[in-house]
Amino acid sequence: MASNIKLFDVVALTADLPAAGLERGQVGTVVETLAPGVFEVEFSDDQGRTYAQSAFREDQLLALHYEPHSSV
Fold first, then answer.
1. Model's pTM, two decimal places?
2. To 5 degrees, how large is the angle CA 66–CA 69–CA 70?
3. CB under 8 Å to 43, separation ≥6 — which residues?
4. What angle do CA 46, 52, 53 make, to 5 degrees?
């Protein structure tokens, strides 16, 4: 099955990850595809400083969309 998540997608965490210091809903950017369904995600503050970067399975992420889905 093809992944719905792609390089440079903006994603949100779907669960708390206390060991990584991250909470459900935190928003990051996919910066690398490590394996099918596994992505490196970078989390940055409002000044662009990275505060966390880690690998996540697709089921731990929700792709965010800023435009309507095209039916074409």
1. 0.87
2. 130
3. 22, 26, 27, 28, 50, 51, 52, 53
4. 120
- Mean pLDDT over 24-35 rounds to 97
Backbone angles phi, psi at 36, to 5 degrees: -55, 120
3-state secondary structure (DSSP) of residue 69: coil
Fold of 10-63: SH3 type barrels. (2.30.30)
Q: What is the mean pLDDT of residues 12-24?
A: 94
**The pLDDT of residue 3 is above 90:** no
% residues pLDDT > 90 (the chain): 81
* N-term to C-term CA, the chain: 21
Question: Rounded distance, CA 18 to CA 28, Å?
Answer: 16
